[in-house]
Amino acid sequence: MSATEAGTLGIKMIGTPHAPGSVQCDWIVAHANGASADSAATLYFPGGTAVSTNVQSINIPIGASVALIRQRLSSNATVGATMSVVRSYGLDSNNIPTRLDSTAGSATAAGQSLLFHTTESVNLFDATYMYSPPITLTGLDMLGDAKLRVMVETASDHTASVNQILVKFIN
Description:
Blueprint: H1 3-8, E1 28-31, H2 40-43, E2 58-59, E3 66-74, E4 85-91, E5 97-99, E6 112-113, E7 124-125, E8 129-131, E9 140-141, E10 147-154, E11 163-170
Antiparallel strand pairs: 1-11, 2-10, 3-8, 3-9, 3-11, 4-5, 4-6, 4-10, 7-8
């Protein structure tokens, strides 16, 4: 829109107009211990103050509409038979929760599994960590919420010095 067009609409333009940008951040820790399940009470009351100290209440960046979720283990980890199952909750500015990973309408609906191959060498690695693929490549819609909390429904039995749930926001 030009300054002339804006003026005829009664809009005062300050500075140069820009196209909307892309939101992207690095992977950040959403849950500090994928080997530790959160209590049933907090899974049903994710906006409360009694959640585990493993759960991070993450501010969703302005403009971000989608979150990718994955798990990170130390690179020398042994993958167990039980995979972490997580539930993802959005919280609005009043801490009213929305279940982001299930539309089943029930607080008891199963969460989503973070899957590793039990042959460790075929998983994704960097120099320090082993990574699961994201739960979904299209991500979870944040539904306009202000914060995200990822909670562990089922703890993994991986043997690892680091066992974290990560989140990455995009738009």
